[in-house]
Amino acid sequence: MPTREPSWALYRTFLEVLRSGSLSAAARGLGMTQPTVGRHIDALEADLQCDLFVRTQRGFSPTDAAKRLAPHAEALEASAAALLRSMAGAEDTVTGTVRLTASEIIAVEVLPPILAALSARHPGLAIELVPSNRVEDLLRREADIAVRMARPTQAQLVARRLGEIRLGLYARGDYLARRGRPAGIGALAHHALIGFDHETEFTREVGKAWPWLTQQRFTLRTDSDVAGLAALRAGWGIGVCQHGLARRDPNLVAVLPEVFGHALDVWLVVHENLRRSPACRAVFDALAEGLTRYMAG
To answer: Are strands 145-148 and 96-102 parallel, antiparallel or unpaired?
Structure first.
């Protein structure tokens, strides 16, 4: 059993050694001396009563105990970073840093003009934008605000439903002129289809409604929504696209709109401890307004 509670500084040093693999590299990353980094590791091992690294000629190799400790130390790191961001925006003026996560396609195609206008209004505000289709953990403060396509269930999170994003099948007009416009679902078998590489909860839901839309039918398989949209715009074939994005591109034409249609709920989520932060509130309000406008357009 640990003899006492180690300080955060020791965990911070532990993570740097774990990531860099040596005392010297960790010392450079932390702006410390190598002996100080070594003393931190020794102190943490003494407090936890276990060996965290095996010292070799090639550097420091983590033990099983270090691997078990790593996710907990990373959670502390994330909480400390969120605390600093929260305190940086604690004044009434909108300053500091807000970490925002959204799906790839939303982060790349929809949010930039919203965030650019917000930055122009509040030059003291910095945004950390995390494009990710993985559900970032707001409870562990991996992000301060999230744009999600499903309602969160954790009680500590404050969520607002903004509306829904409509999806449809689209292709470039010149592709359809070359290959012909499909007259029905069966005709899609003779077309180049753009789709997913690995199944997700979303693709399984789509599959329930349209069982013909299977991975085996796709001539381009990618889990990147951005790559799929780029292929669609390049005229690769037929793929799923948000109506709002398709409206921006006069080259894209709806395919079988009477057959294929899907909607994604859009939720804006923030941790309850941050919703009164002026910086988080400014970002939250700007996103709510901008995304609602995008969905209505």
So the answer is: parallel
Q: For the residues of 7-48, what is the DSSP string, one character each?
A: -HHHHHHHHHHHHHSSHHHHHHHHT--HHHHHHHHHHHHHHH
Residue located via tokens 């000629």: 57
Cβ of 42: how many Cβ atoms within 10 Å? Answer: 12
Q: Is 270 exposed, middle or buried (0-12, 13-18, 19+ CB in 10 A)?
A: buried
- Give 61's strand partners: 54
Contact 240, 264 (CB under 8 A): no
134: three-class secondary structure by DSSP: coil
167-224 pLDDT, tens digit each: 999 999 999 999 999 998 889 889 999 988 877 666 666 666 666 666 668 899 998 9
Euclidean distance between CA atoms 121 and 94, whole angstroms? 9
pTM score of the predicted model: 0.65
User: In b/e form, how buried is each residue of 235-259, taking b as 16+ CB within 10 angstroms?
Assistant: bbbbbbbbbbbbeeeeebbebbeee
Residue that has been written with the tokens 């305190």 in this structure: 87
Half-sphere CA count of 184, side-chain side, radius 13 A: 1
Token pair of 80 as six digits: 């400390």
Q: For residue range 95-125, what is the model confidence (pLDDT) as tens digits?
A: 889 999 999 999 999 999 999 999 999 999 9
Q: Which tokens hold the place of 23? A: 């005392």
